[in-house]
Fold this protein.
Amino acid sequence: MTESTPNYITEIELYEKDITHSTIGECVIKRGDEVISDTKASYIGVLDNIWDKMGTDRILTESSFKFKFLTDKNEEGGFIEKGDKGYHWRDRIGMFVQNRNAKRTLKEIIKMVILNQYSIKLRIKLKTGEPIHFKID
C-alpha cells in the first residue's frame, strides 16, 4: 500500500483557512540538509526555532512582532514581566515577544522561511478535521 501524494495548497489558500485550534501534524523547515525546525508543539515554537538561527538584530529588523528586553520598563516603571501587555519570555532568543494568534504567527513563519530562503513542509489538521498540506521548496 502506498501513500497518496498530498494536495498542497498555495500560500494564499493557506491564509484563507481558519487555523484557530488547529494542530500541527508535521512542520519541517530546512536550509539545504540542515534542519532548522521539526517541532509540532506550537506555531510560536516553530517561530522560536527560526528566530534562534537569525540573530537579534535581524529579528528586530525583519519581524513584524513586537519585542521587549529584560531591561525595558513597563508603564508602571517596573521591569517587563511575563504577561505584561501579552509579552512572554522566549529563552531561545533572549527577549519578550508579544503573542499573536495562530494565523498571524503562521504568516510570520512563512515570511521568515521566505526571507531566509528555507524550505518548509507543513501538515496541519484544522479544528474541522480537514487536513491541510503546504510547502515551499
